[in-house]
C-alpha cells in the first residue's frame, strides 16, 4: 500500500519551526516564573493533546535497570535476554535479572548498537562503525562511509549491513568488510521515492520478522519499506497531533522495534508515547505507555524488545532503562477514536 505524499518546498524550515515552538514551550514551563502570566488569549494549552493517551493499557512498568556510568545512549538485546547498554567509553552487558555481567571498553560514546547474525557486535560511533568480534575484541573500523556521516541506527542480516545515516539523510548498504555497496532514500520522483527527511538525530531502521527492511521517515511521520536495490515497496504516514493512532511533532517515531509476533513497537518524543502497530498497513493496535509516565521535557534515548517481549526504554531523565511488560490479557486492543 502506498499513500500519496503531500510535499512542501521547505520541509526542513517547517520542521525547525515546529521544533522551536515545542522546545520553547517546554523550556519555559521548566523554569521558575520570571514573567507575568500572559492574557487568556495568549495562553497555549496543550492539556487536550496530552489527554488523548490517558487510556487504560494492558502494560505495566515492572522494573528498571540503572547503569552506573554517564551518557547512557543505546540499547541492544540478544537471544538469551541479555541487555547491552552503551555509555561514555563503555558498553555494559546485563543479564535478564538486571545484573551487570561484563563491560567492553570503547573510545567515545556509541550512538547505536546491533548484534549481527554472525555474532559480531556493530557499534555506531557517529562518523564510523566499530566492529567487535564474537569474543568482543576489536575486529575492524569502518570509516569514509559518506560525505557527512552520522550513524544513528544499524540493521544487519546475513549478507548486508544497513546504516541509517542522519548526517546525509540516506541509508547506506555495506558488506561485512565495510565497503559501501550503495545507498538509498534520496527523493526520486521517477521511482516514486518521496525522500527521507531527518530534521533531528533520530533516524531508525529495523528488520521485521520476515526479514523486510523498514526505515523511519521521521520528517514525514511514518515508515517506508525498501528492497536491497533501493526500490520502495510500501509507505505509510500518520501525521496528526490530535489522534492516538498517529504521530505528532517534527520528527516521529524516534525508535522502532519488533516483538515476537511481528508487531511494530514505536517510541515517540514530545510527548513520549510507546505504541504497537500492524506494520504492513500501519494500523494502530494499542498503547503501551503514555506521556504521563515521563518527565517534562519528555524524551527517550532508545527502545528495544527482548526475547521475552519485554519492552525496554532508555529514559535519560531517570538515567535508567525502564521495563514494560504486558500484565493483563482482559483488555481489548484500543483503537483511536474516529
Describe the protein in words:
The protein has 338 residues and is mainly β. It has one domain (11-326): Neuraminidase. The chain is 7% helix and 36% strand. It is built from two helices and 24 strands. It has helices spanning 11-30, 47-51, and strands spanning 59-65, 74-77, 83-87, 90-94, 100-105, 112-115, 121-124, 129-132, 138-142, 151-156, 161-165, 170-174, 180-184, 205-207, 213-217, 222-226, 232-237, 255-258, 264-268, 273-278, 283-289, 303-305, 311-315, 320-326. The protein has a four-stranded antiparallel beta sheet with strand order 1-24-23-22, with no helix packed on it. Strand 14 and strand 15 (213-217) form a beta hairpin.
Mean pLDDT: 87
Report low-confidence residues grouped into runs of 5 or more.
3-45, 334-338
For the record, the CATH architecture stands as 6 Propeller
Mind telling me the C-alpha Rg?
20 Å
Whole-number total of structural domains: 1
Instruction: Estimate what percentage of residues fall within beta strands.
Output: 35-45%
Helicity range: under 10%
User: CATH superfamily, please?
Assistant: TolB, C-terminal domain
Number of helices: 2
Spatial gap, N to C terminus: 21 Å
The largest β sheet comes out as: 4 strands, antiparallel
Order of helices and strands: HHEEEEEEEEEEEEEEEEEEEEEEEE
Shape call: globular
Total strands:
24
> If you consult CATH, what is the topology?
Neuraminidase
CATH class: Mainly Beta
Secondary-structure class: mainly beta
Strand adjacency order, main sheet? 1-24-23-22
Amino acid at each position: 500500500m502506498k499513500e500519496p505524499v503531500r510535499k512542501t518546498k521547505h520541509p526542513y524550515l517547517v520542521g525547525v519551526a515546529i521544533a522551536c515552538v515545542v522546545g520553547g514551550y517546554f523550556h519555559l514551563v521548566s523554569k521558575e516564573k520570571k514573567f507575568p502570566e500572559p492574557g487568556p488569549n495568549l495562553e497555549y494549552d496543550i492539556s487536550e493533546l496530552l489527554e488523548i493517551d490517558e487510556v487504560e493499557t494492558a502494560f505495566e512498568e515492572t522494573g528498571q535497570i540503572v547503569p552506573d556510568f554517564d551518557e547512557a545512549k543505546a540499547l541492544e538485546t540478544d537471544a538469551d535476554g541479555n541487555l547491552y547498554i552503551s555509555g561514555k567509553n563503555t558498553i555494559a552487558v546485563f543479564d535478564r535479572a538486571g545484573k551487570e555481567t561484563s563491560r567492553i571498553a570503547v573510545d567515545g560514546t556509541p550512538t547505536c548498537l546491533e548484534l549481527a547474525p554472525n555474532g559480531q557486535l556493530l557499534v555506531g560511533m557517529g562518523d564510523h562503525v566499530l566492529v567487535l568480534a564474537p569474543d568482543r575484541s576489536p575486529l575492524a573500523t569502518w570509516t569514509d562511509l559518506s560525505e557527512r556521516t552520522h550513524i544513528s541506527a544499524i540493521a544487519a542480516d546475513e549478507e548486508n549491513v544497513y546504516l541509517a545515516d542522519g548526517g546525509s539523510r540516506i541509508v547506506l548498504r555495506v558488506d561485512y568488510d565495510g565497503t559501501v555497496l550503495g545507498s538509498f532514500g534520496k527523493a526520486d520522483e521517477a521511482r516514486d521515492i518521496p525522500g527521507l527527511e531527518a530534521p533531528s538525530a533520530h533516524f531508525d531502521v529495523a528488520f521485521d520478522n520476515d526479514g523486510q527492511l523498514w526505515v523511519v521517515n521521521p520528517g514525514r511521520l511514518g515508515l517506508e519499506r525498501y528492497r536491497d536495490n533501493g526500490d520502495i515497496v510500501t509507505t505509510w504516514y500518520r501525521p496528526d497531533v490530535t489522534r492516538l493512532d498517529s504521530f505528532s511533532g517534527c520528527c516521529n517515531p524516534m525508535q522502532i522495534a519488533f516483538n515476537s509476533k511481528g508487531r511494530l513497537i514505536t517510541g515517540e518524543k514530545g510527548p513520549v508515547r510507546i505504541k504497537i502497530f500492524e506494520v504492513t498497513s500501519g494500523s494502530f493496535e494499542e498503547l503501551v505507555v503514555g506521556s504521563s509516565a515521563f518527565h517534562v521535557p519528555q524524551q527517550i534515548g532508545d527502545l528495544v524488545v527482548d526475547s521475552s517481549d519485554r519492552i525496554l526504554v532508555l529514559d535519560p531523565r531517570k538515567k535508567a532503562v525502564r521495563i514494560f511488560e504486558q500484565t493483563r490479557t482482559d483488555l481489548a486492543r484500543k483503537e483511536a477514536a474516529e
